[in-house]
Design goal:
- The protein is mostly helical.
- It has one domain.
- It contains five helices and no strands.
- The longest helix has 31 residues.
- It is globular and about 60 Å long.
- The termini are far apart.
């Protein structure tokens, strides 16, 4: 019983550490893009700010409510986020498949934010 509690406590610590790393990383990405860092912790508003960072219209937030379309829109936003920081599609694939590694890499690298132009 004691080993089970210790294992659970260890997993909880790992889980909280991952949440903190991702939160700090997104905060840093938002501030690199000239947006308030605290916006990454506010539900819904964080998506609005992310859409502003990648220069997509705010109404796209409605597309996140549509099944299947939300996956496609999410991928487009992530690809545009990578491009906004001067990264290529390969990096965007990393952001999609392994965000726990690539989001902190994007946040703490020397990548500079370049305002994307509207299509």
């Amino acid at each position: 019983m004691g080993n089970l509690i210790a294992a659970g406590a260890f997993m909880l610590i790992i889980y909280v550490a991952i949440i903190v790393i991702m939160l700090v990383s997104m905060w840093k990405i938002f501030t690199k893009a000239g947006k308030p860092g605290w916006a990454c912790i506010v539900p819904i508003y964080n998506i609005i700010v992310l859409l502003e960072i990648v220069n997509k219209p705010v109404w796209w937030i409605l597309l996140y409510l549509i099944p299947i379309a939300n996956i496609i829109v999410g991928i487009i936003v992530i690809v545009n986020l990578a491009k906004a920081f001067g990264k290529d599609v390969g990096y965007a694939i990393g952001l999609i498949l392994l965000p726990i590694v690539f989001i902190p890499m994007l946040a703490f690298s020397d990548a500079q934010y370049n305002q994307p132009v509207a299509a």
